[in-house]
Fold:
Amino acid sequence: MRYRGLGLPALLLPALLSAQQVPPIRPDIRGITPHGAQRGADVEITIRGSNLQNSSEIRFATAKLKAEILNVEHNRVRARVHLDPTAEPGRHDLRLVAPHGSTIAWFEVGARAESVEKEPNNEQSQAQSIEFPVLINGTIRPGDYDHFKFRARAGQTITFDIAAKRFESGVDSVLSLLDENGVEIAYNDDYYWFKDPHLVHKFENAGTYVLRVFGSGESGSENGDYRLTAGLMPQIDYAMPVGGQRGKTQEIQLSGFNLGAIDSAVLGEGIATAQVVSRSDRAAILRLTIPENTPLGLYRLHVGGATLPVPFVVSDLPQIAVTTEVARRKQDAYPVTLPVVANGVIDTPKAGHYFAFRVDEEQDVLLAVDALRINTHLDPIVVLYDASGKRIAYQDDPTPTNSAKRPANVDPHLVVHLKPGKYTAFVRDNSFRGDPAFAYRLTMKRAEPDFMPAIVGSDETLFRGKETIVTIRVRRVEGWNTPVEVWAENLPEGVTAPSKVVVPTEPTHFKGTCAEDNILDGTEVDFPLKVAANAPFSVSRIKFRARGAMNGRTVEHPVIANYWWRNVQKIWGPAETPELYATVIDPPELVFEAPERVPAPGGKATVRLVITRLDDGRAPLEIRALNAPAGVMIEPAMVQPGATLADLKVTATSEKPFSIVLEGRTAGKLLAKSHPILIDTAARAAAPQVISDEN
Ligand SMILES: [Ca+2]
Ligand SMILES: [Ca+2]
Ligand SMILES: [Ca+2]
Structure:
């Protein structure tokens, strides 16, 4: 998001101000405790963050979740969330709305009873007793260790799963399993793509064991909330095939642990219920009929009692499932007829699967692998060989994984122009890894060029008299090679935009984390929204649409708002509400960036402020405290035009911590107030406690 000044004659503004960036002033959520709840429950949650003052409403995309706000401070909102008993388990968008903007975060609906960790539990001797199955909401602060004690019987397989980073939590967590003597018997740090751990452990001996949850390198944060799920519940590595054809009945094999008790499975929010055909400890077979009218796409398959929902794709293409045994060798590749989706598991190191197909007429063929998209940790590549065995095409990552602020895409999407003949496609892990949970889907079909348009972010605060740039990203798929045009609908009064912005076919180049040149899997363009100086204040949902034509065919799509995932600074999948939430307000004249808390050992503190002036900035700025309690001296500061820092000296005789609010005035006019700043006179001089969200 960027802002540009509008319509102000350049001579009136110092150069410094014309390029002025407005620091973020809209609400920003950094943590939620608890980060989810059981459906049917009624829970109180605390949202932490910045610029939360005056928050007026929490909205969910689904009508099955409702919230009322109980209390609001600048860095904290307490609310009560009501979860309907039929709400779909899994992640939902929670949107916090305030007069100065809105923001979204994730909130998880669970299917089992939940509890909360109890400190102190930093020592193994203080371990909290738990009984399975359990879902514990906890927090890892800096240097924090959380211990949980449980009984296991010989031969039991118990799953331990942490959801933290996946919910934007501020902690990179680790799981460690200890025996009665404190000896570590199992350990996991980063199981998932984004650093959450997961352990499945078979206990050889009966006994009392301890699970330890902590931050990698003793990291942690006030916003280091986590959800620990543990027990003997069904742990499903994948469903095979990982998708089904609508209008058809098919069998689906589940693979994992503790599957002997599976008694039900529901697709999405009650779309279809599967019948359990057979079940054993390591496998179960379901029979599922997907209704003909089910929208295409990625769903969650909710298997009763399972640790996590299972990804499942609804498609119109025939599905097959192969094993390594039948598809392992190039010379006897598994024969398929296009179009088809081949589902398989790269279950052992160096394994790969070969598929043989014929092309009868010259055409563009798509070879696309889903892995990241279906939440498996395979890093697939796809290779194509001609009838002579010569390699004719290859793809690994459309966008590399270390691409700074760009969304990684490790799922190959290869389009090749083929003459009639026999071909062999091959899928394997890029690093020859294999794992019983490395499921994939390989789509092989005639390419049907199309595109996927997205908004980077889901909300904007628009300032009167300024222009905001919204980033639109178009990903071309299946060989789309013509420009796409994007336009906005439902603009609020006083907001104008170009009738269309053309997205060219050249992909966007960007610098990676080591300044290397990378090519994005798509093209990003600036879409400007101009706000008139007298536009009414409003909150609206701006719709963007995109249209293109290729080979005589016109395709039009809504542009989908994509989640901006702040803990990895990347966009991550679509938000539940496709429109852009836009709030029109006056631009601030002054923004203070102030600490939440300043240690004041011996009653002395210096409050350092970063100042951004957006007024004409020609007169000095006077900063003073509004509400200094008795016995507290705060020297006002005079900030000369152009300066961006100010230090306020605080001296207190009292030993009680207190809060101050600062105000900034120029020529007697009030420009802004700060949030309350805690002056912590109880802090010790030597070791100021630093609360950090960095990890
Ligand atoms: Ca804790
Ligand atoms: Ca602890
Ligand atoms: Ca980790």
Summary: The chain has six domains: 28-110, 115-231, 235-315, 324-447, 451-585, 590-680.
